[in-house]
Q: What sequence folds into this?
């Protein structure tokens, strides 16, 4: 008798830099992992972009690799990737253009023309819950294709967001999902809960695949295969799923990295112009309910300023890694200057000679960061009673940051949350019932409580 094969789910987690494949067993432990980085290519304007062909081949190569591993029984496959990127397919399912980069400059007059035709920039941005971000609003990428390359636009049978394109490679089915439609694409009208009028007027809705629920699964196109294929998810929305599954009392998740995104799935109060101006928007969950989110470029700023402190005091940034909070330094900073008013931008302009040592300077930096974080998170708190804030990612391991945050939100329980690969686990959890015979796990998130 052969050994019993381990039932697993395969998850492709496609980031801008790293492309990963994970196999999770029924306890959500990673039993296999593969990581790849591809060289970027360029589009017809010479702007760097993702190499679609490398990505496609890599999906098939890594699938073949795991199918050859006889110890695993692959029950399902799902995908998660960055949003704001479209793949345009012809009637044979082949890409017609490069995968344009969402950082590519967007013609200002083209964006203005679209806004003006539908009530002006503010109204357009409020209805679509999308600050005017040019190429980062993926709907405007299609609009641009229609305007600049009408002959290619005519050939487009389907425009798929990247997660759904990856899913299409394996299932052969085309569909749209709410998490991709809802990530600042300028496609969705949050008032009518349907595509915005401009999408219909331009016949772009004809090129968008039918919308399905993120919990749906499809059969694979490969003959004889029995595994199920998920629809794919936008990565930020996927990372929220483990928390939604485990916690039912209202909470906010601050997902920290280069961007620190505060997400509140319990706040559907309409966006205000003031919120939009401060980089606040709506995402959508897999079933189409709004998640109010605000973004802060804090991880990037932390890296920049940590290096400035390290250079000034002639130490390495490694010194800052495991600092415990020194409350007397915080008190002294408060007495010497009114640091409650300091923001992220303030610190960049501070003369570092005013600090006696790098420990003081670093504490001041984190005070500035937390001030900015509190303002950003307050934008999504709303009137309802949030009981808990979970912090995951890099800053959840920073004791100074976590202690200061707890002190600033004295009536809310603050937790550092750690979970290996939250984004990938979210994509696996969402289709749990289609591949996993065990009950939902309740121990995949480790929490550490910080007292105010």
A:
């Amino acid at each position: 008798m052969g050994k019993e094969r381990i039932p697993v789910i395969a998850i492709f987690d496609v980031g801008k830099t790293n492309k990963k494949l994970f196999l999770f067993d029924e306890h959500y432990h990673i039993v296999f992992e593969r990581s790849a980085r591809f060289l970027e290519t360029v589009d017809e304007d010479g702007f760097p972009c993702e190499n679609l062909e490398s990505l496609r081949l890599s999906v098939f190569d890594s699938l073949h690799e795991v199918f050859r591993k006889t110890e695993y029984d692959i029950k399902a496959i799902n995908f998660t990737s960055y949003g704001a990127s479209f793949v345009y397919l012809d009637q044979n399912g082949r890409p017609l253009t490069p995968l344009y980069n969402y950082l590519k400059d967007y013609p200002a007059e083209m964006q203005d023309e679209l806004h003006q035709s539908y009530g002006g920039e503010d109204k357009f941005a409020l209805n679509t819950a999308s600050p005017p971000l040019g190429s980062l609003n993926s709907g405007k990428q299609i609009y641009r294709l229609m305007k600049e390359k009408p002959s290619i636009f005519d050939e487009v049978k389907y425009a798929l967001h990247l997660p759904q394109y990856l899913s299409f490679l394996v299932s052969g089915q085309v569909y749209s999902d709410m998490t991709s439609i809802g990530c600042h694409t300028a496609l969705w009208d949050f008032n009518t809960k349907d595509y915005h009028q401009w999408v219909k007027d331009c016949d772009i809705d004809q090129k968008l695949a039918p919308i399905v629920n993120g919990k749906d699964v499809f059969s694979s196109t490969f003959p004889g295969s029995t595994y199920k294929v998920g629809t794919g998810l936008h990565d930020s929305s996927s990372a929220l799923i483990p928390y939604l599954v485990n916690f039912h009392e209202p909470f906010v998740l601050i997902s920290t990295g280069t961007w620190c995104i505060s997400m509140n799935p319990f706040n559907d109060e309409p966006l205000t112009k003031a919120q939009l101006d401060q980089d606040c928007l709506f995402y959508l969950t897999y079933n189409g309910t709004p998640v109010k989110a605000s973004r802060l470029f804090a991880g990037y700023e932390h890296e920049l300023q940590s290096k400035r402190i390290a250079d000034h005091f002639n130490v390495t940034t490694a010194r800052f890694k495991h600092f415990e909070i020194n409350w007397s330094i915080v008190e002294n900073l408060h007495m010497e200057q009114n640091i409650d008013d300091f923001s992220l931008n303030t610190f960049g302009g501070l003369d570092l000679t005013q600090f006696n040592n790098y420990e003081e300077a670093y504490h001041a930096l984190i005070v500035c960061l937390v001030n900015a974080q509190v303002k950003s998170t307050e934008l999504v708190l709303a009137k309802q009673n949030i009981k808990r804030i979970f912090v995951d990612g890099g800053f959840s391991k920073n004791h100074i940051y976590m202690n200061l945050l707890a002190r600033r939100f004295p009536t809310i329980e603050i937790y550092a949350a750690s979970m290996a690969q939250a984004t990938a686990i979210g994509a696996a959890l969402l289709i749990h019932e289609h591949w996993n015979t065990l009950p939902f796990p309740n121990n995949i998130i480790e929490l550490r409580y910080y007292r105010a």
Remarks:
- The CA atoms of residues 49 and 100 lie 6 Å apart.
- The longest strand covers residues 72-81.
- The chain has a mean pLDDT of 92.
- Residues 358-381 form the longest helix (24 residues).
